[in-house]
Amino acid sequence: MSTADRVVATIEDVTGEPAVRSNRDLDLFEHQVLDSLRTIELLVALTEHFGTDIALSEIERELWATPNKIIAFMEQRVGV
Amino acid sequence: MTPYGSVFYFGLLLYLAIPVLVASWFEVKPRRYILAATLVIVVVQFGLGPLGLAIAPLRDIGKVVGFAVGQWAVAALFLRLRRAGPNRAVFYSAVLVALLPLALEKFMPRGTSHLVAFMGISYLTFRALDVVFAVQDGLVKELPAAEYFSFLLFFPAISAGPIDRYRRFRTDYRKPRSRDELLSDLDQATDRIFRGLLYSFVIAPLINFYWLTPSLHRYGLPGVASYMYAYSLHLFFDFAGYSAFAIGVGYLFGIRMPENFNQPFLAKNITDFWNRWHISLSSFLRDHVYGRFVLAATKRRWFKDRQLASYLGSVLAFGLMGVWHGTAARYLAYGLYHALLIVGYGMLTRPERGPRKPLPLLAARVVTFHLVCFGFLIFSGRLF
Predict the structure, then answer these.
(1) How much is the pLDDT for B356?
(2) Which of A53, B96, B215, B343 could link B227 by a cystine bridge, Cβ 3.0 to 4.6 Å?
(3) A41–B287 C-beta distance less than 8 A
(4) Are A41 and B138 in contact (CB < 8 Å)?
(5) Cis peptide before B162 (omega within 30 of 0)
């Protein structure tokens, strides 16, 4: 499985929102798929899933606004 | 001298901006000059009386300089210790020492707090803490003194924010801007400064003169309600005007500080409100207090109900926000009131309670507006 697929699966797992699969440019905060709590849960899930440390202050809302942006963030971290 | 309060202040900062603009035209970032201009304003602002006439005792400048040097020493020492790897005890000690001057200012007995207090200490403390957090997270690996002081004391925001973040500031501070960027920055600066003039010098004084001050002497429910609306609107225009000045002047110097207000009275729920009101403070508390607490709780599984961690985190963050404004009972009540609203809203909209029909948008806005205004009524001190 590619990083992108694993990231999307993790997002769906945490948020319970299947739309993140079909629309990877969905604005997650605008559509209340992510809020403060879920962002942190997603961070913990991605940390556990990929075995890499992500610091809380690294994620700005702008940087994690859509599934595609989160994929780009993780790809930069762990490769494609 | 009060920032953005006199023609003298505006004149001074516009003259100080000219060399930056000239340098920017030649695509040079005058970093040392930005620090020098900041120090000039610090000396003038804290060295002169409110109207720029009388000379205040040198003690005030001493307090600011002492505070800044002390915070730098804490951050630099912490950075050296952090290089050996993260250590929670060292991290907490650094946070506590960085908080110490503010805590002294807040909790020292009446009549002695002026020994450490200066205008803007709460804002500067949060900016200093942001550096400590970034060092702990391993995101800041070097701390050049000039850059640190430029960030901490950056004069447009020194007295009332916005509370910028060190890593964001650093990006702007280091990168020279192109001519195109300069022109677009000038555009933004003009927009913000004129908005500041409109809000601070036209709308806020009009509200104050024709509505807020008269309603001070009206009693009974209608009188208090009228005062509540007047106070809330005045607070917004006064504070948003100040922020607009700060952000606008920041743009002149090539520092694009974060927005502080985004039409807060159009918020459709209380969470939305805190994404629109005093944004730099609420996002600071969200990331550094709520976020860290919930992250620790989630990782170490402190609570069975994950939502509970979120509620407790909100109480912690908003309680702290209350005390940050002051130690009077009304400020703590204001923080707890908002914690209650956020937790209540969270419980009402829990996903496991199934989808629910939201209020019509207009009704949601009206309800939120009134809940928020009641909060400002508590904040104002009119009730107790």
Answers:
(1) 66
(2) B215
(3) no
(4) no
(5) yes
Angle at B354 between CA B353 and CA B360, to 5 degrees: 105
Taking residues A59-75, report their average pLDDT: 88
- Contact between B33 and B20 under an 8 Å Cβ cutoff? The reply is yes
Distance of residue B36 Cα from the nearest chain A Cα, in angstroms: 30
Chain A positions touching B290 (Cβ under 8 A) are 36
Q: Please count the CA atoms within 13 angstroms of the CA of B378 that sit on its side-chain side.
A: 18
Interface residue B294 vs chain A (CB under 8 A): yes
> Under an 8 Å CB criterion, which residues of A touch B?
16, 35-37, 40-41, 43-44, 55-58
Task: In whole angstroms, give the CA distance from residue B318 to residue B174.
Answer: 34
Q: Which residues pair with B22 in a beta bridge?
A: none
Query: What is the rounded distance in angstroms from the CA atom of residue B296 to the CA atom of residue B50?
Result: 45
The domain tally of chain A equals 1
CA distances to B22, B86, B150, B183 from B27, rounded to whole Å, are 9, 39, 20, 12
Give me the helices (H) in B48-120, please.
Answer: 59-82, 88-107
Nearest-CA distance from A1 to chain B in Å?
Answer: 26
Percent of chain B past pLDDT 70, that is, above it, reads 95
Q: Active site includes B370?
A: no
* CA distance readout (Å), B256 to A49, B156, B171, B252: 36, 11, 10, 9
> Read out DSSP for B191-232?
HHHHHHIIIIIIIHHHHIIIIIHHHTT--HHHHHHHHHHHHH
Phi, psi for residue B162 in degrees, rounded to 5: -60, 155
- Where in the sequence is the domain holding A44, given as residue range(s)? 3-78
> Is there a contact between A41 and B298 if contact means CB atoms under 8 Å apart?
yes
Domain of A46, CATH number, reads 1.10.1200.10
Q: Does the beta carbon of B307 lie under 8 angstroms from any beta carbon of chain A?
A: yes
A54: nearest CA in chain B? B137
User: In a 3-state reduction of DSSP, which class is residue B259?
Assistant: coil
Angle among Cα A38, B374, B279 to the nearest 5 degrees reads 40
Which residue in the set A36, A40, A57 is minimally distant from B137, CB to CB? A57
Instruction: Please tell me what DSSP assigns to residue B176.
Output: P
Q: pLDDT by residue (tens digit) across B213-259?
A: 999 988 899 999 999 999 999 999 999 999 999 999 999 999 999 99
